[in-house]
């Protein structure tokens, strides 16, 4: 049976349209939450980290952790498994853009309304104040635009080239909108064929390959056709042939892979360097120190050792970043204006005990050391610190985190 994917704007009455389609077809709804849960079960990643792939805002550590790209890889695999294993499905949400465009038996639908109508729905049906509704709409539209740009390289998430059917709900009405979707399901162009089934199998193979590469730290575009896997490198790399050989060695032995082809894509350029994620070193280190020059220099020296780091200059900023971006290791000074290091340590270990905290101070006493270790600090180091000593300490903290996972 054909499959339906629905992408829609917030507060557009899309939920009601989808419900009507489900009632008329007997299809099963597959939400983003279900795809995220499946991806988490397959990968071992936390659902919250995978779901962050839908957000426009990317982690400050992502250039080293590749967490968003890994999340997308596992989301693709979860979607591919659904398409292989089940029929009569309607996918609604961000996940609707995960499959490649060439699977003919997927009816790609966009449900949208004009902004003034969406505001009206938000105020009337949801009870939101106008300003709050506008903020929600703009944030949701931004997330959707960045998501579509990431997956489809298209600046307009509502572009007609992305869909088989675009329905302006506010003009057509809910009932007629549902009828249009059901009507198109009967179109011969979206019937299941041997060719379209083969393309789902290609999608599944490409998704499996991409998760394996992601697990090895690689962020590579992958496609497949009848067992031939194509790996596309879209960032500049100095030793291209060596990378291509490494990728081919990883992929060639996988079940279902008959041939591997590797090359560069249209985005390959010298200003954006290819960086493999190294899971043996911490990729999400937060440096907290009010000595700006010291903190910046330390960050640069850690990045030279392939450790991803971000810098903040006071305790309050550190707590804010921890709450929204989940660093894995924190290097923390004690003497800072405002909230001092001991209080930051206390709050972090109370609310995020999985974060390992390394104290790095030039003013601490033995009493401070005892307090910090009792509060759960991983290590207590003094300035000036040998960069190799700090690096080994961070590696040990990272190993503790990996072992716990």
Protein architecture, described:
The protein has 16 helices and 13 strands. It has 3 domains: 3-190, Rossmann fold (3-Layer(aba) Sandwich), CATH 3.40.50.300; 216-264; 285-404, Rossmann fold. The two termini are 40 Å apart. With 405 residues, it is an alpha/beta fold. The longest helix is centred in the middle third of the chain and has 23 residues, at 130-152. The radius of gyration is 24 Å and the shape is globular. The protein has a 5-stranded parallel β-sheet. A 5-stranded parallel β-sheet has the order 10-9-11-12-13, with helices on both faces. Strands 6-7-8 form a 3-stranded mixed β-sheet.
Number of strands: 13
What is the CATH third-level topology name of the largest domain? Answer: Rossmann fold
Major β-sheet annotation = 5 strands, parallel
Name the CATH homologous superfamily of the largest domain: P-loop containing nucleotide triphosphate hydrolases
Number of helices: 16
Rounded mean pLDDT is 93
* SS class: alpha/beta
Order of adjacent strands in the largest pleated sheet: 2-3-1-4-5
Q: Which architecture of the largest domain does the CATH hierarchy give at level 2?
A: 3-Layer(aba) Sandwich
- Element string (H = helix, E = strand): EHEHHHHEEHHEHHHEEHEEHEHEHEHEH
Pfam families: Cytidylate_kin2 (PF13189), Response_reg (PF00072)
Domain Response regulatory: 284-398
Protein name: Response regulator receiver protein
Keywords: Phosphoprotein, Two-component regulatory system
